[in-house]
Write a structure and sequence with these properties.
CATH topology of the largest domain: Elongation Factor Tu (Ef-tu), domain 3
CATH class of the largest domain: Mainly Beta
Number of helices: 4
CATH architecture of the largest domain: Beta Barrel
Radius of gyration: 46 Å
Largest sheet: 6 strands, antiparallel, barrel
Structural class: alpha+beta
Strand order of the largest sheet: 2-11-14-13-12-15
CATH superfamily of the largest domain: Efflux pump adaptor protein, beta barrel domain
Number of domains: 4
Helix content: 25-40%
Number of strands: 21
Oligomer: single chain
């Protein structure tokens, strides 16, 4: 009996193992995972009229910004304004020491007084000579000398009067005043400093005309005059301002290789302050219809650019596109999928037409 049990033991073990494997296979069949789908970001493609746009950073600058200086040399005794101060036409900006200028006026006045006395004496002598000549007592040669002395005295008086006028003008030039309404952008001299004639002392930016300074790339230099320009402030993106190109530099900056362009702002109000950051949008209507897609949506393995489209069931389809132009972050296409088709925006190089994907929608392109 022991022998029989010993011979039947292997059969029993095999039966138990077979039963366990069968149960495992049934469990694995029952819990087999479903088909896994890759998640992709998609967005609808939208065609619109080809309205070319280019945005450039800009800063608000005054059209006229002048360095004002004294018309005479002297020592700066007082500066009446500081940077950032609003001034009106005629306001005092700075003042020179007037001591020497007053002395020059006094000297000119003394010379003018002496010239008047000489002129009066020469005129009286000439008049007496003419009376004596009429009586027959004065020869013609004497009269000629008297007339020459009178003319010389008259010229000396004229010269003295002009010197007095210049001295008074020089005294008035000791007061530096604003020639127009504006804002002080820089104070270039301090009290006690000795200034030469014409040396800048105060910088004034006029507020009557404001402009946008833009660094224009080389690709836009030829077409910028035909483009429509609109400016928006970074602080007020909802308020556009009409812009008109006023001037463009004839030479490119040697470092940035851009051209400095100035756009006038005829509708600028008080909210447009000097130094503000802004954006200038240059646009030009074009022909045909185009769609803008991210550069990451393009797929090209040597057969031309294409995009992956996704239908409602998650199936992929590769459709060729024709790229009209490339921009900084987008590709502009004029042929491709139909309007409203969903295209894959990211990870296009990892997809295959045999795959099914789970689409996650993003707002329109």
């Amino acid at each position: 009996m022991f022998y029989v049990l010993q011979r039947g033991l292997p059969l029993l073990v095999l039966a138990i193992v077979a039963t366990g494997l069968s149960a495992c296979n049934e469990g694995q069949t029952a819990t087999a995972p479903k088909e896994e789908r890759k998640t992709v970001l998609v967005g609808p493609i939208h065609y619109e009229a080809d309205h070319r746009q280019r945005t450039l950073s800009a800063s608000i600058r005054p059209r006229v910004e002048s360095d004002l200086g004294f018309r005479v040399a002297g020592k700066l005794s007082r500066r009446a304004v500081d940077a950032g101060q609003i001034v009106k036409a005629g306001d005092l900006l700075a003042l020179l020491d007037e001591t020497d200028l007053h002395l020059q006026v006094d000297q000119a006045q003394a010379e003018a007084s002496a010239a008047r006395v000489s002129m009066a004496q020469a005129t009286a002598d000439a008049e007496r000579g003419r009376e004596l000549q009429r009586a027959g007592w004065t020869p013609q040669s004497t009269m000629d000398k008297l007339r020459a002395v009178e003319e010389e005295a008259r010229g000396r008086l004229t010269r003295a009067e002009r010197a007095l006028e210049l001295a008074r003008n020089g005294l008035s030039y000791a007061s530096l005043r604003a020639d127009a309404d504006g804002v002080v952008t820089a104070a270039l001299a301090e009290p006690g400093q000795v200034l030469a004639a014409g040396q800048p002392a105060v910088r004034i930016a006029r507020l009557d005309a404001k402009e946008a300074l833009v660094a224009l790339p080389e690709s836009l230099v030829g077409d910028v005059r035909s483009l429509e320009a609109v400016l928006t402030l970074w602080t007020r993106p909802d308020r556009p301002y009409r812009s008109v190109l006023r001037e463009i530099s004839p030479m490119a900056d040697p470092v940035t290789r851009t051209y400095a362009a100035r756009f006038s702002l005829p509708d600028a109000d008080d909210s447009v302050a000097l130094g503000m950051s802004a954006t200038v949008t240059l646009s030009k209507p074009g022909e045909g219809r185009i769609a803008r897609i991210p550069l990451t949506a393009l797929f090209d393995q040597g057969n031309g650019p294409a995009v992956w489209t996704v239908d409602g069931s998650g199936s992929l389809s590769l459709k060729p596109v024709r790229v009209a132009r490339y921009e900084s972050k987008e590709a502009v296409i004029d042929q491709g999928p139909a309007d409203g088709d969903s295209i894959v925006l990211l990870g296009v190089q990892k997809l295959d037409a045999r795959q099914r994907v789970r689409a996650v929608e993003r707002p329109g392109l």
